[in-house]
Design brief:
Layout: E1 16-20, E2 41-45, E3 62-67, H1 69-77, E4 82-88, H2 100-112, H3 114-124, H4 138-150, H5 154-159, E5 164-169, H6 177-183, E6 189-192, H7 199-202, H8 204-217
Parallel strand pairs: 1-2, 1-3, 3-4, 4-5, 5-6
């Protein structure tokens, strides 16, 4: 994917960060990262896997910091508001990483055995903090699996004229590194060695350092 660049300073709106979590996640995944931006205006999209949706009514231009499915969701819904895009363990299409057959099997197991389905997924995702499975919104999680199966925003990425940064983990079991390199070819990428799929939880300091470096470089 080829990412074109437009200076952050071409927009007159105040700098705002919007954080978008991934499948089975919540805004809580950002709690270790957000304190690294104490002087920024921040808001969060909640995709509703543990309760009500946030509404997604953000209309101002913002820097979007996204994780996993959150990248795909943001590309589909928030391109006009995007001043820059930070991709943390994220993708513009999930097809290169997991087949529809696997996602359909996850949907079936989510209905029959949600506790073990989610426990296994969180283990593969290297998640360090997870909610109790008793509060899962099964219907919304199933809908999210449909998004993973059918949404493809690769062409949208090619058309973007904003700065893009990709952060990846060398040991990500959900998004293997070689596939990530192919998926985000020609897009700036930083790789955290010996790290998995939950970089905002496990390596928040490193993420913040790379994000700040990227945004500083994007300003003229």
């Amino acid at each position: 994917m080829i990412a074109k660049k437009r200076s952050l300073m071409q927009s007159k709106s105040p700098e705002k960060y919007v954080f978008v979590h991934g499948w089975s996640g919540s805004p809580g995944i950002w709690r270790h990262l957000v304190p690294h931006f104490p002087k920024k205006q921040t808001s969060f999209v909640d995709l509703g896997y543990y309760g009500a949706l946030s509404g997604h009514e953000e209309r101002d231009e913002a820097i979007y910091i996204t994780h996993s499915l959150g990248t795909l969701w943001t590309l589909k819904h928030k391109r006009p508001q995007m001043k820059a895009l930070v991709v943390v363990n994220g993708f513009a299409s999930f097809a290169p990483f997991t087949s529809h057959r696997v996602l359909e099997a996850m949907k079936r197991r989510l209905q029959s055995d949600p506790h073990n389905q989610m426990t296994e997924f969180w283990l593969n995702a290297d998640a360090t903090e997870t909610p109790p499975t008793s509060v899962l919104n099964i219907e919304r999680l199933s809908e999210g699996l449909d998004w993973l199966a059918h949404w493809n925003e690769e062409e949208a990425v090619k058309a973007l004229d904003v700065p893009i940064l990709v952060l990846a983990g060398s040991e990500d079991k959900i998004l293997p590194l070689e596939k990530m390199k192919a998926h985000w070819q020609n897009t700036p990428m930083h790789i955290k060695e010996e790290a998995g799929h939950s970089l905002p939880q496990t390596h928040a300091d490193w993420c913040a350092e790379k994000i700040n470096e990227f945004l500083d470089a994007a300003k003229p």
